[in-house]
Amino acid sequence: MKKSVSRLLSRAGESFSEVLVAILIVAMAALLLASMVSASGSIDRATREEDEAFYEAISEVEEGNAAPVPGTITVKPDGGSAINIDVDVYKDVDGMLSAYRVKG
């Protein structure tokens, strides 16, 4: 404790090597921050592109721009009998997304 107080009260400055080490630490921290910001920007850009493609695919399917394929949906309530409903099925190019519209 006495050393800390006496060092604070001393008029002597920091040594050259201490200053160089401090500058090195600050430079490394700035470099790390810059690389993290760059990586974050790349991730954000890629995510936006994927989201845009996904929302475009959803819009295409929901608007029914693809040729419909006839299909049947079977609904069976608990304890009830099955009901078949004729529908038109719209799928995206990959066949991953589907939308259904009741015929008629």
Distance between the amino and carboxyl termini: 88 Å
Spatial strand arrangement across the major sheet: 1-2-3
Question: What's the Cα radius of gyration?
Answer: 33 Å
Topology as H/E string? HHEEE
How many domains, in number, for the residues?
A: 1
Tally the helices. Answer: 2
| Basic shape | rod-shaped
Structural class based on helices, strands and sheet pairing: alpha+beta
Taking the sheet with the most strands, its summary is:
3 strands, antiparallel
| Sequence stretches where pLDDT stays below 50 over 5 or more residues | none
User: How helix-rich are the residues, as a percent range?
Assistant: 40-55%
Mean pLDDT: 86
- The total beta strand count reads 3
Approximate strand percentage: 15-25%
Describe the structure.
Helix content is 54%, strand content 20%. The protein has 104 residues and is of the alpha+beta class. A three-stranded antiparallel β-sheet has the order 1-2-3, with no helix packed on it. The radius of gyration is 33 Å and the shape is rod-shaped.
Spell out the key features of this protein:
104 residues, alpha+beta, 3-stranded antiparallel β-sheet
Topology:
Blueprint: H1 2-9, H2 16-63, E1 69-75, E2 83-91, E3 98-102
Antiparallel strand pairs: 1-2, 2-3
Question: What is shown here, in short?
Answer:
With 104 residues, this protein is an alpha+beta fold.
